[in-house]
Specification:
Elements lengths: L5 H16 L6 H8 L3 H13 L3 E4 L5 E4 L8 H9 L21 H17 L4 H4 L2
Antiparallel strand pairs: 1-2
Helix pairs in contact: 1-3, 1-4
């Protein structure tokens, strides 16, 4: 199981670069050159962040992307949810089928406790905290 998938990793790296760089608008070419992420893949990620209101895009000469949310307010889990969907670390083996042992399964109870702790810790990570 991967906790953080490639899209999420690239999005976080791009956002951190944008904050560190400090310029108002960061050209995509700068992100590609510095992060070594394939341009088409990175553009797709940036467009998703633009649609979700994390970034704003600017076209034409001098165009690129601007971070529009305070890095203190961007949670790692927010970015994970954008690219990975709901965070479910403990998915039952039977998935959609109703497990007859769901309420009494001792393994599920322990895994639920671990999941709750992991999600609590992940919720404390902001973009700003990753830059320290």
């Amino acid at each position: 199981m991967k906790l953080i998938k490639r899209d999420t990793d690239y999005a976080i790296r791009a956002l951190c670069f944008a904050v560190k760089d400090g310029r108002d608008i960061i050209p995509v070419s700068e992100l590609v050159n510095n992060l070594k992420i394939p341009r088409p893949f990175l553009r797709k990620i940036l467009q998703v962040l633009n649609k979700r209101g994390v970034l704003k895009s600017f076209r034409g000469k001098g165009g690129g992307f601007r971070l529009v949310v305070d890095p203190q307010e961007i949670l790692l889990t927010d970015i994970m949810k954008i690219f990975q969907g709901p965070l479910n670390l403990n998915e039952c083996f039977f998935k959609k089928d109703i497990c007859p042992n769901k309420k009494t399964c001792s393994l599920k109870k322990r895994l639920d406790k671990i999941e709750k702790y992991v999600l609590y810790e992940l919720d404390s990570i902001t973009l700003a905290s990753l830059l320290k």
